[in-house]
Every structure is written in C-alpha cells, then in structure tokens.
Amino acid sequence: MTGVLKHRLFWPSAALIVLLLGNLIFTPHFFSIEIRNGQLYGSLIDILRLSAPLILVALGMTLVIATGGIDLSVGSVMAVAGALACLIVVDNPGLSGVLLACVAAVTLALVLGLWNGFLVSVVGLQPIIATLILMVAGRGLAQLITEGQIITVNSPPYRFIGAGYLLTFPFAVIIAAVVVAFTALLTRRTALGMLVESVGGNPRASRLSGIHSRRLIWGVYAFTGVAAGIAGLMATANVSSADGNAVGSLIELNAILAVVIGGTSLAGGRFSIAGTVIGALLIQALDTTIYTTGVPAQTTQLFKAVVVIVICLIQSPAFRRKVLRTVPA
Amino acid sequence: MAETTPILEMRGIGKRFPGVTALDGVDFRLHPGEVHALMGENGAGKSTLIKILTGVYDIDDGAIELDGEPVLFSGPQQAQHAGVSTVYQEINLCPNLSVAENIYIGREPRRFGMISFRAMRAKAAELLGSLGIDIDPGSVLAGHSIAVQQMVAIARAVDISARVLILDEPTSSLDAGEVAQLFRVIRDLREQGLAIVFVTHFLDQVYEISDRITVLRNGRLVGEFRTAELSQRDLVEKMIGKELSALESIEEQAKPQLRDPSPLLVAEGVGRTGAIAPFSLTIHAGEVVGLAGLLGSGRSELARLLFGADKADSGELRVDGRPVTMRGPRSAMERDIAYLSENRRTEGLIEELTVRENIILALQANRGWARPVPRRQQDELVAKYVEALRIRPADPQTVVRNLSGGNQQKVLLARWLITEPRLLILDEPTRGIDVGAKADIQRLVVSLAGDGLAVLFISAELEEVLRLSHTIVVLRDRAVVAQVENTDAVDANSIMNTIATGVTA
Predict the structure, then answer these.
(1) What DSSP assignment string belongs to B91-127?
(2) What pLDDT, on a 0 to 100 scale, did the predictor assign at position A329?
(3) Residue B424 touches partner A, C-beta closer than 8 Å
(4) A interface mutation test: which of B306, B339, B361, B371 has the most A CBs within 10 A?
(5) Hey, what domains does chain B have and what are their CATH numbers?
(6) Domain formed by A42-316, architecture
(7) Between helices B405-417 and B435-450, what is the axis angle to 10°?
C-alpha cells in the first residue's frame, strides 16, 4: 500500500478520480457511456475530446520544462497554425485542400518552434523572454493571416479533425493518443528522454559529459511548436472557424499547470508524460465539472483557482507532512 | 608585537556531521590589532570553524569567549551585533544599488521617517574616506572592480561595530594591484585595533600581511605560530602533513615500469589568461602524471584546458602527434580523453537520475540520442562496474543523490571508464570520501595504468601523488614551476620545498 502511495502518479490520479466521482452527486449519469449513431456519447467522452488540444500542448511543454525552460508562445502558435489552415481550407474545402492546409499549418508551426529554440539555445535568451516574443507577435501574425477577421470555413473534412468520429471514437482523441504514444516512444525508447532530463537536471555536468545540449534544447522547442500546431488545427476545426485572438488563449498557463500537476518539476529534470496527460485530463474535467454543476459564471475562475490550489497542496510532500504533524495520527 | 589579552578565544571546539567529524578539539584565539591567518587544505575545517564562530552552525563541544564573556551566537546577524563580521569571497552585496545604499542597507539614516539619501551619502563618504577608499558613494556598486566591492563590503562590516573581522578568501579573484589596495585597507584597520581573521590559499599573501598563523588539518589543530617564526616550507608541511594516517593499510604497490615511447598527449605553451600560465606537458600511455600544489595553484585549471572544458588562449595541444583544437568536452571525448571534475555535485552528478543512468550518460552522449545503448548491454556494463568498483548500494535503480560521497565518486568513475578512455584526468578523486573508497580508487589507478591507460592524477594529498605517479608536475600560484621524475630521490620533503619556494630542490 505504501508503494502505491509513494508512486509519483498516485496523487494526480487520486485527484482526478475524486473529481470525477464528485460529479456523480450532481450528475447521476456522469459515468454512463452509450453509442448513438455509431458514436460514443457521454460526459467522460466529452472530457476526453475537449482535452485533446491541451494534452498536445502540455506534451510539448513537458519536454521544454524538463530541459529547465518554458514556452509561453504555444497559444499563439495554435492561433497562427489554425488561421493559416482555415485560410487555405476556405478556398479548397475538399479533402486535398484540407490535407494541404494541415501540412502547411504544421510546417509553419515547426518554423515558429525552431525560432523559439534558436533564441533559447543559440542566442541564449532566457526561455521566458524568448517565447514571450512569439506569444505577443504570434497573435499579430494570426491577425495578419486572417486580416483581422474571423475566418469561417464550411468543410466537412476539416471539421472532422476536431469534431469527427472514427470507429466510434472522437478523431481528436485518436490524434492525441497517437502523438502521446509517439512522444513516449521517442523519449523512452531512445536516449532522448534521459538526455533531456540530464540537461535539465544539471546543465554543467551534462556539458562535461559530452551532451550536445544546444541541439537537444532546439529540438524540444521545435517539437513543442509542432504539437501546438496540431492542437491549433483541432481547436479551429472543432468550431469551423479561426479567431486569431481567441484560439489557444491562455492555454500556455493550463499546459504549465498540467505539467506541474503531473509531477514534472518547473526546475527541470525528471519528467512524466503519463503525469502530464493525467494533469491535462484533470484540468479539463474541472472545467466540465464547473459547467455541469452550475457554478455561477462570474465565479468559475475563482472556483477553479481554489480547486487547483487544493490539488497542488495535497500533492506537496512538505504540506502533507505539516498537516500530518498537526493532526495526531 | 606585545602580548595582549585575546579578544576572542575558542576552546576545544568540536563539530560532527552525520558520518564525519568536521572539527575535533580545536583551539583558536585572536588578539586585537593582529591579522591572523587561518590555514589548511580543503576539508581541514576552516570554513566550519568560521561558521561556528559566526553562529551559522551550533557547536557540539567547546566554548567561545568574546572579551572574556562566554558567547554562543544563534546566527550571523547576532554575531554581527556582538562585533563579529564576515566578508565572504562571493560578495554579499546588491550590485544594482549604490555604494552608499549597500553600506547602510537595513539601517538607513532617516529624517521624518523617510530615508535621507543625502545624509547616507555624506556618512558613506566619510566612512570610505577614513579607510582611504576614494570612490563616489552615489555610484552604482556594479560599476566598480571586485576589489573595490570587496572593500565596500569591509567598510560596511566595520561600520556595523566590528571588533572581529573575518575575511574569507577575499583575494582569490583579485589581481596583484587590487590585492595591494586591499592590504592597505587591512593594515589601516589593524592599526585601529581590529582583530582580523584572514583565510586564503596564497602563501605569499599570508607572509605579507599576517602576524600569526593557525593551521588546521583534517579537523584538528596543528598549531598556532608566529608568522615570522615559521618558514614557508614548514607551513606547507604542517598543512599537508606527512603521516599516512589511515591510509597506511594500503599495501605498497609497485609502479608499473612500462613506458610507451610515443607520447599520447603533448601540450606546448598551453595556457589561459587569468587561469593558468602557459605550460608544457607530455603524457605517455600507461603513465601516471601527478599534479601537486596547494588548492588554488591552478591544478584544476590545467586539467580543464586539456579536456576542453575551458578554451586555451595560447599554445598547441597534440594528441597522437596531431594538433587538436579543443572546441569543448566533445573534442576531447572523441580523442578518448575523460575528465572527472573535482566538483562532484555541480559538475558531475545528475542527482535525480539513477545510478544506471548516471553511469551510462557519457557513453550515451557519445553515441547520440538516436542510438540508445540497448538496455541489456546497459545492465551488463553497469553491473560489471558496480561489482568492480564495489558501488553500494549495488542496486543500479537507486537515485544517485542517496549514495554516499565515495559511492557517488565511483559512479562518476564508472561513467568515464565505460567510455574506454586512453587518458583519464582525475581531479581530486579521493577528496571528501571515506578511507575504504579512497583505497579502492588508488588501487584502480594503479591497475588502469598497468593496462596502458594514461592518467593525470590531481590531489592535494602529497603522499597520494607520490605513491601513484611516474612523473610529478608541481604548481604554484597558477603556474607550473617544476616537473620531476618520481625516482627514489624524490620525497614529500623535496616536493614541499618546491611548492613553498617555487624552486626544484
């Protein structure tokens, strides 16, 4: 039992489960899942589907944070990628046009990620400043692409990316799952994960051990750009429109939160992909809970903040020790 | 100098940390109007003694008397109030504030409850003037040289009613002119009757400024001496010590006599300004070259140039007869050079990774991320070295932070050994580790050299260097002063003479 308690995914998982169970009080059918028209329906499925973009963004953020950095520009990269994709799809709503849009948008996101990586690893800017540049400029770039308008597209194949179902499963969830699996394989089946943790854990020792930390850090930001680009496709496809201001707004903060809840230290070093996925699900579950339990709209942010603080405190070993000391066991 | 009553007396000071006795029965006394040098090699207990005096640590045994009154400080602030101030090597000031603000921060002169910057500047100017420091008190601290910043720190300490001033390696980053400037201020303060504790590794400076010397070794008091009555040679001997002490149990091993005629690495006039003067050095396969010299004499700086950890700005380096430009550690690693840093924690270990990951790291870095060492091969390699080096606990999945110092050192050794280097640079591999691990590492060096590996062995312990090396390179004040073949004629005495005087005996 103590082994389970000590596992680093115990507390995030427990918090997620408690949150989901809590929903049963307000929504008795919360856990029911049914198939309608060959598609899975249910609150849990909604949470999964809506959390897909956040999972992708948080995945990239996990690696960036593991190197000791941070990427604030992910929301803007989502907006830019989504805007470019919608611009292309609006004139070519067919399947080929959508494919072209996806490739173009993800490529642009890759370039933006490379730009961030260049500033951090070659120029040597502090990550928070380097990515702040694109966080601000990216919104402008997205507005430029959409010419300040909200581009609305009418393309069933494009909508499919965000809202479609494949073999009864939401397509967005499938994409997210594939990217998660790919990242897990990439980091844990090669030496990438260990080298990233090493660079984040002790940059000086890593250099003296012969690790090319520059390339590594560059690559991690590029990956985060791509992940954000795919998330941008999903987010805009889900609503069939691109709003340069709204897409991915403040998602960087949720992503950082998901990473931290998942047990990756902001100081860099050890990271956990599974933890990040749980963290992202937890945040989305919290959002869904707030809507379904009818917390007044004006107080949702406050409510969310309180819950997040409680979760973070419960996860902190120092806090738990303090509480255990004052409460005689 | 007349014998006065000591202002400070520490008697029978003892301090234990888990697993180590840092200080054992140390006496230390300090008279007003004297500069008292506290000497000893790394780990001798100097900083522990100072931290006890300033209340950073509690004492386990002994007593402290200040002005005849027993005192026990609970922290540096309280010590400072009682008149014991410390100026550290890393200046504890705010570089972004002005000189005057730095001197009076926390005790600003006020007028109607508001800080009076004019009064502050005037008082600062007066204070600095009295110490003969000619700078504008309104200027930003960061604009001044380290020496001036150091003096501002001293001015601040003195102004907060210092009777005892502790200077912890104040000169380690100063050039000769700046040192002279600082010493003038120190002499002034001595004239004013301050008692000054001076910690440094530079022998010449000790003889230039100090009246009395207390030497510590391995947490014990070696003795208190008048500087005028102690020769440099005797001082070095007292600091380093001659006895083998606990290491006597190690069997004397014959040094392998094999010499490869073609040199593996040749350095010609390699140097780096401010780190080490240009030196020449040749290392053959199967040869152990020992670097002897006191701390701060440039031993690590020399090693770092050979590994490319720092870039040389003069001279030429040749490996296998071919000129090499070291662009970084990778250049050296590609030529089978490995470097074990003296800073185990900051430059060696990735503390949150496991023993296995730490051992595999350099090999993996060499292969690149895309070609992971297969897990089975990892386990075999790690198991082999855990066994060979007797790493405890023997579980490769242990997080390396939880190992003892000696075992952590062995993990780092294993990291480099599995890369199969031809030249292994060991910087203080035996420092701060227990005797058993020390013996293990010494034996390993002998057997590696027997297998044809070249080893550059750096240690503050002369006996260790003498026992292991074929050739001994002596450093002093950041320059190579001698290179001697380690024949029977060479002993600790002759090396100590060279360290103390800079001349080969």
Answers:
(1) --S-TTSBHHHHHHTTS--EETTEE-HHHHHHHHHHH
(2) 42
(3) no
(4) B361
(5) 8-240 (3.40.50.300), 245-336+421-501 (3.40.50.300), 353-420 (no CATH)
(6) Orthogonal Bundle (1.10)
(7) 20
CA count, 13 A, side-chain hemisphere, B194: 29
pTM score, whole prediction: 0.73
> Averaged over B467-471, what is the pLDDT?
88
CA R_g for chain B = 25
Surface-to-core class of residue B2, CB atoms within 10 Å of its CB (0-12 exposed, 13-18 middle, 19+ buried): exposed
Query: How far apart, in whole angstroms, are the C-alpha atoms of residue A4 and residue A14?
Result: 11
- Cβ–Cβ of B309/A208 closer than 8 Å? yes
Give me the DSSP letters along A221-262: HHHHHHHHHHHHHHHHHHHTEE-TTTTTTTHHHHHHHHHHHT
CA distance A197 to chain B (A): 8
Distance separating alpha carbons of residues B308 and B326, to the nearest angstrom: 5
- Token readout for B421 is 């280097």
Question: What are the structure tokens assigned to B347, written together?
Answer: 């430059």
What confidence tens digit (pLDDT) does each residue in B472-487 have? 999 988 889 888 888 7
Task: Determine how β-strand B164-168 pairs with β-strand B84-87.
Answer: parallel
Cis peptide before B372 (omega within 30 of 0): no
Average pLDDT, chain A: 87
Q: Dig out the tokens for B296 from the structure.
A: 């701060």
ipTM (interface predicted TM): 0.82
Question: Distance, in angstroms, between A17 CA and closest chain B CA?
Answer: 29
Q: Say whether B365 and A209 touch across the interface (CB within 8 A).
A: yes
* B369 interfaces chain A, CB cutoff of 8 Å: yes
Reported as a single tens digit per residue, the pLDDT across B210-235 is 999 999 887 889 899 999 888 887 88
Pinpoint the alpha helices (H) of chain A.
2-6, 10-26, 43-66, 74-91, 95-117, 127-146, 156-163, 171-188, 192-201, 203-208, 213-239, 251-261, 273-292, 300-315, 317-326
Q: Verify whether the Cβ–Cβ distance B348 to A208 is below 8 Å.
A: yes
